[in-house]
Design a protein that fits this description.
Radius of gyration: 62 Å
Structural class: mainly beta
Largest sheet: 11 strands, mixed
Shape: flat
Order of helices and strands: EHEEEEEEEEEEEEEEEEH
Helix content: under 10%
Strand content: 15-25%
Number of strands: 17
Distance between the termini: 87 Å
Number of helices: 2
Length: 458
């Protein structure tokens, strides 16, 4: 690694007290290369400025052709006088130069090829005529050039002295005044435009031909039959721990779609002496279900429960909730005995034998109760929400299904052709256009008085 130039070995050691194999530098005081020696852990003087590479061998010279007779040399024309030489600017001083880097060694010189035979010299030409110049023999091939040794260190070049000043440029002569321009003569008046001739009358339009009859319209194909009406289904209600949009006291809610909340496990600890115990109250949003009658049919309660021991039953009570906060019980149903000690779906059905009348603004409320016949305390569970144990009720509140598919429409018959349109009569001739009047002459162009005086005076 080339570390550059240093004035003395001490300066090199101060800058790089520790080097590495391959490190070298140029020292000015010895004009030689110093390298790092790992064995002595010091810088040593190589006493060299760098080897010179070998010079490649020179190829042999081809044979020289004969030299023809030399013709006479014509007279040399006289040389014209030499113009004066302008003053030379002074040369700036040359700055002090730093050391020159060592020159790489010069490669060895290749062998010199054999010299070809020398052509014969032709006879001397006469004094007056010079013979033709003989052709020059072929030049032998040039031998390969030896490789050039590595480049020596770059040195600092002294500052270049200032460049001599450039002589001044003479002043440019003034430009003469521009003579005055003569005035432009007036343009003569434009001649009158002749009158425009009248337009001839338009000839009468010929009669319009009769319109052909319109063909008959084809018959329209039959309309396909309408598919049967789809079945109807009841609305499913899902329980949620969220409050209704318009709250009903502390009630939680029931919705048309499953809630996005995590699974909820409500519990009560009761015994046989507590009777029916309320576990939760759930109401719809305002104006839901928005109907005036609940159809007769089967309500299916798909609820998830379990107990800590013994047995229990659960009762579901369905109310209508009016805008004046009046609650009216519509029906209730109780499950079979529940003895499961882990979460289990309990399906309970209730048949509504007759429709129930509502106001359109009435809401639905469902309340969940628990009871046990066990003498000791038991923990009863009611699980809802989430995505696995999602308690819900399939009601008879009707949601109309989509109608059946509509049958295909029959094809439309073709439309008859339209009769031809009669021809249009010929257009009458157009009258001739009157002649255009002659254009007036253009006046002569005048000359400038100043320009005329200048011409007379010069």
């Amino acid at each position: 690694m080339n570390l550059g130039w240093f004035a003395t070995p001490e300066a090199l050691r101060a800058a790089y007290p520790v080097g590495a194999d391959g490190y070298f530098a140029q020292v000015g005081s010895t004009d030689s290369i110093w390298v790092w020696d790992s064995d002595t852990s010091d810088w040593i003087d190589t006493k060299t400025t760098g080897p010179q590479g070998p010079t490649g061998y020179t190829g042999y010279t081809g044979a020289t052709g004969y030299t023809g007779d030399t013709g006479y040399t014509g007279d040399t024309g006289y040389t014209g006088p030499t113009g004066p030489t302008g003053p030379t600017g002074y040369t700036g001083y040359t700055g002090p130069g730093n050391f020159t880097g060592y020159t790489g060694y010069t490669g060895y010189t290749g062998y010199t090829g054999d010299t070809g035979p020398t052509g014969y010299t032709g006879p001397d030409g006469s004094a007056s005529n010079t013979g033709a110049t003989g052709y020059t023999g072929d030049t032998g091939p040039t031998g390969p050039t030896g490789y050039t040794g590595p480049e020596g260190f770059a040195t600092n070049t002294g500052a270049t002295g200032p460049t001599g000043y450039t002589g001044y440029t003479g002043a440019t002569g003034y430009t003469g005044d521009t003579g005055p321009s003569g005035y432009t003569g007036y343009t003569g008046p434009t001649g009158l435009t002749g009158p425009t001739g009248y337009t001839g009358y338009t000839g009468p339009i010929g009669p319009t031909g009769a319109t052909g009859y319109t063909g008959y319209t084809g018959y329209t194909g039959y309309t396909g039959y309408t598919g049967p009406q789809g079945q109807t289904s009841g609305q499913t209600w899902y329980f949620s721990s969220d409050a209704p949009v318009v709250a009903i006291g502390s009630y939680e809610s029931i919705h048309r779609q499953p809630a996005l909340n995590v699974e909820d496990d409500d519990t009560v600890v009761i015994n046989s002496g507590d009777g029916q115990t309320l576990m939760g109250e759930y109401g719809t949003d305002s104006n839901e279900p928005g109907i005036v009658s609940i159809d007769a049919g089967i309500w299916k309660f798909h609820m998830f429960h379990f107990v800590s021991g013994g047995l229990a039953t659960f009762t579901y009570k369905v109310y209508k909730y009016e805008t004046d906060t009046t609650e009216t019980l519509l029906f209730e149903v109780t499950t079979a005995d529940v003895t499961a000690t882990s979460v289990t779906e309990v399906e309970t059905n209730y048949t509504l034998v007759a429709p129930i009348t509502l106001n359109a603004t009435d809401r639905l409320v469902i309340k969940v109760y628990a009871q046990t016949t066990s003498g000791g305390d038991r923990t009863l569970h009611w699980v809802y929400e989430g995505t696995v144990n999602t308690s819900h009720v399939a009601s008879t509140i009707i949601v109309s299904a989509d109608p059946g598919d509509t049958g295909p429409t029959g094809y439309t018959g073709y439309t008859g052709y339209t009769g031809y349109t009669g021809y249009t009569g010929p257009i009458g001739p157009t009258g001739y256009t009157g002649y255009t009047g002659a254009t007036g002459y253009t006046g002569y162009t005048g000359y400038g008085t100043n320009a005329f005086s200048w011409f007379i005076n010069n």
